[in-house]
């Protein structure tokens, strides 16, 4: 059974996905797949042409944070980034998900990704879980991770789908305004529900 775990920046979707993996699910992380795709020389060349030749760090690797800063300053930049990244990323993601589903058999595969709804791919999942928290809590968490200024975080939030719409469309909603212990309680509850559903599919 394929379960999508989504939510905006700072929502805690990755932490929740990890809790389900700890309980026995196989996990696929969209960010990790994106990093693999961004290491492709053809993709790097397109990104350099679109956003600047100086996108590589001292080790010759793509500076993803700097790429984000340049791409997300405008609607056009965001669109160009998606035009470059989405085709190879979508191909890589679905290949990995198909492999995970084969490995999982009758078990659960969880896919941690922020743009499931934005990409219009929700129909490919058996269930979708939206993890959410109050905006100020999300901003605080994103700031604590480092790398982005508050204005950049809010800009990225503004470019993602409204959390209210995501929650209205979700099969399950996880409230992550508390601590990791609170999140684990919800993971236990949802794990029980999802494993029952998996037996029926």
Provide the descriptors you would attach to this structure in a database record.
58% helix, five-stranded parallel beta sheet, Rossmann fold, 5 strands, 201 residues, alpha/beta
Instruction: Output mean pLDDT.
Output: 93
**Count of helices?**
9
Gyration radius, rounded: 17 Å
CATH architecture: 3-Layer(aba) Sandwich
Provide the structure class.
alpha/beta
The parts where pLDDT drops under 50 for at least 5 residues are none
Portion in helices: 55-70%
Spatial sequence of strands, sheet with the most strands: 2-3-1-4-5
Shape: globular
Number of individual domains: 1
Q: What is the CATH homologous superfamily assignment? A: P-loop containing nucleotide triphosphate hydrolases
Descriptive overview:
This protein is α/β, with parallel strands linked by helices and 201 residues long. The protein has one domain: Rossmann fold. It has 9 helices and 5 strands, in the order βαβααααββαααβα. The protein has a 5-stranded parallel sheet with strand order 2-3-1-4-5, sandwiched between helices. The protein is globular. The chain starts with a strand and ends with a helix.
Task: Compile the SSE list and pairings.
Blueprint: E1 2-6, H1 13-22, E2 26-29, H2 30-38, H3 41-51, H4 64-71, H5 75-104, E3 109-112, E4 127-132, H6 135-145, H7 150-159, H8 163-169, E5 172-175, H9 180-200
Parallel strand pairs: 1-3, 1-4, 2-3, 4-5
């Amino acid at each position: 059974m394929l379960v999508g775990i989504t939510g905006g920046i700072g929502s805690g979707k990755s932490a929740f996905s990890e809790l389900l993996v700890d309980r026995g699910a196989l996990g696929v992380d969209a960010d990790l797949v994106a990093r693999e795709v961004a290491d492709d020389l053809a993709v790097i060349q397109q990104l350099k042409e679109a956003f600047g030749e100086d996108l590589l760090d001292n080790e010759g690797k793509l500076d993803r944070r700097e790429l984000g800063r340049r791409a997300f300053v405008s609607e056009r930049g965001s669109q160009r980034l998606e035009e470059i990244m989405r085709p190879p990323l979508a191909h890589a993601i679905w290949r990995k998900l198909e492999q995970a589903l084969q490995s999982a058999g009758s078990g659960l595969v969880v896919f941690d990704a922020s743009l499931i709804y934005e990409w219009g791919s929700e129909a490919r999942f058996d269930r979708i879980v939206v993890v959410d928290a109050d905006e100020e809590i999300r901003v605080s968490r994103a700031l604590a991770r480092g790398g982005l200024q508050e204005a950049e975080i809010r800009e990225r939030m503004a470019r993602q789908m409204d959390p209210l719409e995501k929650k209205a469309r979700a099969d399950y909603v996880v409230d992550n305004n508390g601590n990791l212990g609170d999140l684990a309680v919800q993971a236990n509850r949802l794990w029980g529900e999802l494993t029952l559903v998996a037996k029926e599919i």
